[in-house]
UniProtKB/TrEMBL annotation, chain A:
Residue ranges of the TM segments: 77-101, 122-143, 163-185, 197-216, 299-322
Source organism of this protein record: Micromonospora avicenniae
Top-rank taxon: Bacteria
Keyword annotations from UniProtKB, A to Z: Membrane, Transmembrane, Transmembrane helix
Protein name: ABC-2 family transporter protein
Automatic annotation (TrEMBL), chain B:
Taxonomic lineage from the root: Bacteria, Bacillati, Actinomycetota, Actinomycetes, Micromonosporales
GO molecular function: ATP binding; ATP hydrolysis activity
Domain (ABC transporter) ranges: 5-230
Record-linked InterPro entries: AAA+_ATPase (IPR003593), ABC_transporter-like_ATP-bd (IPR003439), ABC_Transporter_VariousFunc (IPR051782), P-loop_NTPase (IPR027417)
CDD domains: ABC_DR_subfamily_A
Any coiled-coil regions, as ranges: none
Record's protein name: ABC-2 type transport system ATP-binding protein
Entries under Pfam families matching the protein: ABC_tran (PF00005)
Keywords (A to Z) from UniProt: ATP-binding, Nucleotide-binding, Transport
Amino acid sequence: MIWLTWRQHRRQALFTLVGLVALAALMIPTGLMMRASYADKGLAECLRVLNAAQPDPERARLCNRALNQFADRFDSMSLIGVLFLVLPLIVGLFWGAPLVAREVEQGTHRFAWTQGVGRRQWALVKFGFVAVVAVIVAVVYGLGMSWWATPLTGAAQQSRFDVIFFDMQGIAPIGYTLFAIALGVCAGVHWPRMMPAMAVTLGGFVGLRILLTVVARPHYLPPETRTIPIQGTIGEPGGALGDWILEKGIRNAGGRMVLSDAQAACSGAAGPAGGKCPPIVEFGEGAYNWQLYQPADRFWLFQGIESGIFVALAAVLLYLALRGIRRVA
Amino acid sequence: MDIALETEQLGKRYGRRWALQDCSFRLPAGRIVGLVGPNGAGKSTLLHLAVGLLQPDAGEVRIFGRSPYDNPATLPDIGFVAQDTPLYRDFTAAELVQLGGRMNVRWDAALARERLAQLGIPPKLPVGRLSGGQRAQVALALALAKRPRLLLLDEPVASLDPLARREFLQSLMGSVTDSGTTVLLSSHLLADLERTCDHLVVLHSSRVRLAGAVDDLVDAHRQLVGPRHVGETIAGVGTVVRARHTERQSTLLARIDGVVDPEWTVHDVTLEDVILAYLADGETTVARTDWEVPA
């Protein structure tokens, strides 16, 4: 059985390997380049400077320039990252959906399932094989992307929680890839035609990913709130670097939101740098900045939750596929 | 007597349409059985039920006493060649023989290789590039290499030209006569079966019309020519299968059960006559209403 699976899918496996090598040939040099530039410009130190409670204005100016230079040079790189958002889907479409659907479409299931091993064993070996391949591929590229994307997210002072960056790195891609494969297999079992199975995989994967990203992910854990007095003049008053800000606004002394999606700082002339400034008339005395956020250090926890949800869904789909395969004629 | 395949009230439904209904017969072991019927009569359905690819919706099918559905234990006993002989087209014949060895408990690779060598099938060519006849031979060789007790062949010669057809059937007969394998092969062509089969199952419109040993069937039927017949009973005649009338006389094909009324001239019939008579009695009324054509 394992020999059959290997013999049948070795060409697919080879294509996958070639694809991964081609991606590595693109990602490794660009990754090294970014890391070298990041180190040259001393950006790690810069971020510490900028994030300090009382940044030294001169060093902050130099650092901001260095960060902008880095961003100008490498910002377009994050477009490459988008490629990795669709990678799990591609695996699901071309490994998952045809696994059973193609056999049925070509009638070869009548050959395979009437040899000595029953179709259940056939399915277990096949599903296991693609799942293992998928996990290996996903681990390699998920952790590889974590390595690749670190300087980008760092220099852009972005949160790793940002939609594209969260989704393309870490262990979440393992869940996505397994889920895409399982969805493809399950669709192929219950609708054993290639095109419909691929369409269901495409629609189901994109739909569920968007739904969970938008609706569920912000609430995996109860978010925390933070209030920051209106003071200082540099940029937006921030919290810790890398937090995932879900909501922000300015609340008045009574706690009522007076302006949402905004944060306030003193205007330069109003008071001494870093000091408290006179109340802004618009908001009244005692107004403050307010943020609802997920702390940056929850990144791996959220990755685990996201991945866990998709792995669990994959397990359910594979179970349904195993049950459904008995009824495939 | 050992029963290779037995069905009891077997039925299979696709949606609301019954593809097979009330199907009951027994095949004694060691027979070469022809499964005849027009396209769409339910032949493939019956074979898929027998090999366990389909689950019955009614009744039962048993292979050597065991139900084949969801029961891999029956698989080693059955050799199956599906319609259009599906094989992995990018595999070579040699690889398929190797594959069979890995997917079967009992596997006679030497037998398969010898057959394929004898037939001059190239071992290193993907089977997708072989001719239809060669591919059918590869599929048959793979089914025989399981050394099955029951060999099920679904329209094995349908896609072959007459010469390849004869060769295929000859080589099939050559290999099963010694081993005592029971063979059930379906065809919508009578000529294929007449020469090879000693037992027959006739399917039409999802029902079994006739089942039995060829000799018994031929013996039991006669063609009768006599005065115009309007349905009255005739001495010695069991059931009239088909009747044709002119103004003054009637020609009947009937199952006889004794000495026939001497008023009728009795002729022997061929197997083909019998089968055609049973197949002619099909249900065309449904199709006529479906097409909105007056009956």
